[in-house]
Write a structure and sequence with these properties.
The chain is of the alpha+beta class. It has three domains: 112 residues, no CATH class; 83 residues, no CATH class; 50 residues. It contains eight helices and seven strands. The chain has a four-stranded mixed β-sheet with strand order 6-5-4-7, covered by helices on one side. A three-stranded antiparallel β-sheet has the order 1-2-3, with no helix packed on it. A hairpin with an 8-residue loop joins β2 and β3. α2 packs across α4, α5 runs parallel beside α8 and α6 crosses α7. The N and C termini lie far apart (57 Å). The structure holds zinc ion. The site of zinc ion has 8 residues, from loops.
Amino acid sequence: MKFDAPQFQTETEARKYIEALRWPSGRACPKCGSIGTEYETKREGRYRCGAKECRKDFTTITGTVMEASHIKLTVWLMAFYLMASSKKGMSAHQLHRTLDVTYKTAWFLAHRIRAAMRSGGLVGPLGGAGKVVEADETYYGKVENPLTTRTDGRAFTKGGVGTANKRAIVALVERGGSVRTFHVAEANRETVEKIVRENVHPDSRLHTERKPPLSARWQRVRRARNRQAHRWRVRTRRRSQQQRRSLLWRVQEGHARRLSALRRKAPAPLS
Ligand SMILES: [Zn+2]
């Protein structure tokens, strides 16, 4: 690992490096936003806002994930580098060994940096005017508290089939763009709508997958094969599939309604 760049050597160099990244056009007060009014205090790297009503002290880590920690800036920078450059992410344990810090410190670093890297929050919404975002939902992995019996009370006979006991994932895909996935406790209308509202630009078109229904012939074959199982399926699994499908449709319709209302309200462009 290459850590011979100056910002990994001394605290002063690290601070200068972060300041240049954070304040490319003058130091901005994180409280009131005034730029270039600050003056230096006796402590290195600590500035005081010069705005009359503000006078807040701040440093380069105020209002960032590094705030309120006693970890050296050089260690933060190395941790950022490691977490951002390793393809599969890095565990707190790996950080602990690589950076030669306590596990407790490594755990803290990993959590803060993951929080900063998580999609949403700092990054903008998906899509935009004329762009298409697709919403899809899938089931993967295992839930924390798996059911041991089916909803009708009988024990499971096969494992790993269907959506039972798998974690619900909602995926948003911008056509030709990026993907965001969200684990949800339950894919109901509120959670899906919240995700769409917070992550999809209101001007984009929202698409949801529509699966073609089973052909009548295949339905007859299946019915004949196991009337009992079919009846159970109709009553439970397919009903819940339909509910999920219509859930995404409803979310999509709601989005389309909001979009057209937005367009109606938008002022006419200046010629
Ligand atoms: Zn200020």
